[in-house]
Amino acid sequence: MDKKLLTPGPLTTSESTKKAMLHDWGSRDIKFIDLNKKIRQTLIELINGQNVFECVPMQGSGTFSVEAMIGSLTNKKSKILILINGAYGQRMKKICSYMSRNFITYEVAEHEIHNIYKIENLINENKDLTHIFSVYCETTSGILNPIQPISELAKKNKISLFIDAMSAFGALPLDIKETYFDAVAASSNKCLEGVPGVGFILVRKNVLQNSKNNSHSLSLDLYDQWESMEKNAQWRFTPPTHVLAAFNQALIEHKKEGGTTGRYERYKKNCKIICDGMAKLGFKQLLSNELQAPIIITFLQPKVPNFDFKKFYNSLSDKGFLIYPGKLTVADTFRIGCIGSLYEKDMSEAILAVENTLSDLEIKLI
Ligand SMILES: Cc1ncc(COP(=O)(O)O)c(C=O)c1O
Question: What's the domain range around 34?
Fold first, then answer.
């Protein structure tokens, strides 16, 4: 049996999603073309974006989609405010630097969220701002960033908001009727519970239509990808056919579970079992519950004699669970994800495995 992935992705997927890959698809065949159309339509429906947004799928991991979003939908005249509180905000900054985009940053510590008044001040001080980039759930720590007030500020000041919702899309609420934004990037292999290999960008039609010739890259050109897909319903370059077949199945299961609301409820329950269970065993969570998104939880590595992360990891792996190392720059931590095709029973078993690991390694926390 496969080990259970308590990670930020790739994640444990359902049997039926894996089985959807057991076919070979002709990329120019009508069956695949229909499947591709259905996926794009479903993703737009998830944000209530029918007739207002377009969906452009992009081969590769999530970063390819973020880079395609930035490179295609901004240009040399843009001035971007990047909100940073972790590695993925930093990555957007790096992407902007690679492309010589004009940007400023507002950076806070990895366990903090941005102050809305300070963002407003930055907007007032930089009248030429055209874009704000924000990460919805900063997976570095698992923090939930305040996307709603950021969006309200952007809308009020007529600034285009781009969201990296990689680890949030499909579980945390995102609806264009509630939250104003121009583009969001996400991928198949996180809360939508598909397999890795494809990402997508949902973008306001007029923003996409105005983006011709912006991109520095042919393969990451969203305009070109979209225009060509609209023309003949086909991908420009080899599509990840099996990944898309699995994605289609994963989206069917997402709908069956009650869509984004249903998935959020399950992940919330999963998260509570992990947080409560780990607290009971004596572990300290990095974030307070108000800042914690039900996606991935960061714990401080205990400073006790027998705790060694490698041994802790290996012991949990022997018991069938793969956790994730920490990514914080300021403290030694590790992370436990609560997303993927995993349920309350899996979470309770994971806590039992941690308890047994503590006993096997003779680690005393309480
Ligand atoms: C918020 C966020 N953005 C971007 C990425 C990058 O995705 P990938 O590693 O698939 O390129 C991740 C990956 O975990 C993420 O969590």
Answer: 16-256
